[in-house]
Specification:
Blueprint: H1 2-30, E1 42-47, H2 53-61, E2 77-83, E3 91-96, E4 99-103, H3 108-120, E5 131-137, E6 143-147, H4 163-175, E7 180-187, H5 196-204, E8 211-216, H6 225-231, E9 240-242, H7 252-265, H8 279-318, H9 326-350, H10 363-377, H11 391-399, H12 411-423, H13 427-451, H14 459-490, H15 497-507, H16 510-518, H17 529-535, E10 541-544, E11 548-551, H18 560-613, H19 618-622, H20 628-662
Parallel strand pairs: 1-6, 1-7, 2-5, 7-8, 8-9
Antiparallel strand pairs: 2-6, 3-4, 3-5, 10-11
Helix pairs in contact: 1-8, 1-20, 8-20, 9-13, 9-18, 10-13, 11-12, 11-18, 12-14, 13-14, 14-18, 15-18
Length: 663
């Protein structure tokens, strides 16, 4: 009885300050503030299996919780101890799954077992859904603690194989937050350095600043205990408290008396400092740590609540108001359409991008890249099929040989050759346009989906619209490109003055070219010795501007007339080719630009209206139905805001109180 009074007095001295703090935190816990990702200061009890966790809680609460061999604690058990000095009989209740079940000291163990079975099933499996036990009793310390399943390496019969991982993950979830105080329960009978619970708490609390150790079973291993708790080999900063829990059928009062006697009379245990032994010391220490932790965390919790509240309120405000009338729906549709158009205009025509959009969406810039790459793919030199100089030309000229003056270059031969050369590159513009439309397909679809995000019921027709736009425009575009190439192949024409100028410059080399070929041709009878020697020096190559060194040996077997014509033809082709390539690049660029304009200004609207509105107004009416996803998001946000507002009030009240006490 003496002990009980002492504890009650202890609790009373903190009552005024601690109780409201704790109530506030418990209230926040009850409001399920943790669901919003805001952590609350919590004392978390961990320990290896059978280290005595439940016994310690029992000693603190003065009640019996399921305890014994094997795994007993299978779900996290939050214990809220509240000192009610005026209460003649203790009041106990279990809270789980939104229900409250009253119980009594006598039946609490059974009630916990029943609730555990309801939550985690009747086997030996564990579950992370918590169970809350509220104990209102005279003389208990004002504490809220969570008891977690004990750590076990070896699954017992009926337990899942991954039991260790399951338990470890629940424990980690509870001890990881900086707001958690870790109450590490260690049995005096084991080597602390090999305790699983020590290894786990050290992982999340390296410095040990939020870990407190309770050493149980002091009665079973007094030898060396003093050394163990003073050496502190496992680096615990909040200190050690050695205890002796209830054994067998002892009453709680008897157990406390036995504990006091043990630590004062045992020759070894009595040497341990009195500030480190006994359940009352533990209770007091925990209350102090808890109060300090709560007052330290409160301002931060207040900030986090505010932040989250602001975020959620903004998000709710930004959610689309579902249209409620036909007129509203039309307005919303027009708004969506014009926003999408404006956005497309920005990225495809103006080249203005949102800062946060990814580069792939920078349409104007990506299309410029593609055009540049395409222009590089078109060969700037006219491609030849024969390695030897002028042979392409000579072959065509020979084929088109007709009856006529020998020095008239055949026009049809030129066109034939030009057409053959163009075949080499005719696929390039088509491939380019296919790539451009592939890219635009992606961009247009992404954008239209983004703008219709709030109306999932419209997304299918809008997806169809996007597909139609691209298919239609791509078809037209490919047709236009084919025509461009066809124009080049059926006629040769340019007004470009460079053509004549450059051709003339190149032709100035014709005479010396022919001379070099003729140098050793048809040696005359009057050839002198010197010329015969020169013959062996007949040039096999000649340098031509615009071509570099070219072989000429092989040309000596052809008539002058045909070589001259071939030379002329090659010069024309060379100059004209450059003009053709430039034309294909420029025309295509202009074509793409025009397509973008048509797409943004006409086609998007046309197809969207076609697909969404169709022939009747049914489509638009669909907008009046709010999608279930949006509706539930709105509900969720509203609920969360309510909860946060309430929590904010709770925190504000308690902070006011702290301030007024401080004054
Ligand atoms: P838990 O698995 O960590 O919850 O451990 P329990 O509280 O169920 O205790 C395991 C066993 O150790 C039980 O049989 C307890 O009676 C016993 N035990 C716990 N604390 C003490 C103690 O201080 N002294 C003695 N002798 N036995 C204890
Ligand atoms: Mg237990």
């Amino acid at each position: 009885m003496k002990n009980k009074q002492k504890m009650s007095a202890l609790a009373n001295s903190y009552d005024e300050h601690i109780r409201p703090l704790l109530d506030a935190i418990d209230r926040l816990r009850h409001l399920k503030l943790m669901q919003e990702g805001i952590q609350l200061p919590t004392i978390v009890v961990i320990g290896d299996q059978s280290s005595g966790k439940s016994s310690v809680l029992e000693s603190l609460a003065g009640i019996s919780v399921p305890r014994g061999q094997g795994i007993c604690t299978r779900v996290p058990l939050t214990m809220r101890l509240q000192d009610h000095p005026t209460l003649s009989t203790p009041k106990l209740q279990l809270e789980y799954r939104n229900k409250t079940v009253p119980t009594s000291e006598e039946f609490v163990a059974d009630a916990i077992n029943a609730a555990t079975e309801e939550i985690a099933g009747s086997g030996k499996g564990i579950c992370s859904t918590p169970l809350t036990l509220v104990v209102k009793k005279s003389g208990v310390p004002n504490l809220t603690m969570v008891d977690l399943p004990g750590i076990t390496r070896v699954p017992v019969h009926g337990q899942p194989d991954d039991i260790y991982e399951q338990i470890a993950s629940i424990i980690r979830e509870y001890i990881c937050p900086q707001e958690s105080i870790i109450l590490n329960v260690l049995s005096a009978t084991v080597d602390f350095t090999t305790c699983e619970s020590i290894l786990m708490s050290q992982k999340v609390d390296r410095t040990g600043e939020r870990t407190l150790a309770v050493v149980t079973k002091a009665d079973m291993a007094p030898q060396g205990l003093l050394e163990k708790v003073t050496v502190n080999a496992v680096n615990i900063q909040l200190g050690y408290v050695c205890v002796r829990n209830r054994i067998g059928e002892e009453s709680y009062d008897q157990a406390r008396e036995e504990e006091t006697r043990l630590f004062s009379s045992d020759p070894l245990l009595s040497k341990i400092d009195k500030s480190m032994v006994g359940i009352p010391v533990l209770a007091q220490k925990l209350m102090q740590i808890q109060a300090a932790c709560i007052s330290r965390c409160l301002p931060d919790i207040a900030n986090k609540i505010n932040e989250k509240l602001n975020r959620n309120t903004t998000e709710l405000d930004q959610m689309p108001q579902n249209p409620t009338s036909f007129g509203d729906a039309i307005r919303a549709f027009i708004h969506m359409l014009s926003s999408a158009k404006e956005s497309l205009r920005n990225i495809l025509i103006r080249g203005e991008y949102d800062d946060d959009s990814n580069e792939q969406m920078h349409g104007r810039a990506r299309l410029a890249d593609m055009l540049f790459k395409y222009s590089k793919e078109l060969p700037s030199e006219c491609p030849t099929s024969q390695k030897e100089f002028l042979i392409d030309e000579i072959k065509v000229l020979e084929e088109s040989n007709g009856i006529g003056l020998p020095n008239f270059m055949s026009r049809s031969a030129f066109i034939t050759l030009l057409r053959r050369k163009l075949k080499h590159i005719s696929d390039t513009p088509i491939e380019f346009m296919t790539k451009v439309w592939g890219y635009l397909d992606d961009i247009v679809l992404k954008l239209l989906m983004k703008y219709s995000d709030n109306y999932p019921q419209l997304q299918l027709p809008i997806r169809r619209a996007s597909h139609n736009i691209i298919e239609k425009m791509k078809k037209r575009s490919l047709q236009a490109v084919k025509e461009m190439i066809e124009m080049e192949t059926i006629a040769d024409f340019t007004l470009n003055p460079d053509y004549m100028k450059t051709w003339k410059e190149l032709m100035e080399q014709q005479e010396s070219f022919m001379e070099a070929i003729n140098k050793t041709k048809k040696p005359s009878m009057q050839e002198n010795l010197r010329e015969v020697i020169n013959k062996s020096k007949k040039p096999s190559k000649i340098y031509l501007n615009g071509f570099g060194e070219v072989e000429i040996e092989h040309l000596r077997q052809y008539s002058d007339s045909i070589v001259e014509q071939a030379f002329d033809m090659r010069m024309r082709l060379t100059v004209y080719w450059k003009i053709v390539v430039l034309r294909l690049a420029d025309e295509l660029a202009l074509h793409v630009l025009r397509c973008l304009k048509v797409l943004v200004e006409d086609e998007v609207e046309l197809e969207m209206v076609n697909e969404v509105v169709g022939t009747s107004a049914n489509g638009i009416e669909k907008m009046l139905e709010e999608s279930p996803a949006i509706a539930s998001k709105r509900e969720r946000l509203k609920k969360s805001i309510e909860l946060l507002k309430e929590s904010k009030q709770v925190v504000a009240n308690i902070m006011d109180r702290i301030r007024s006490i401080g004054e």
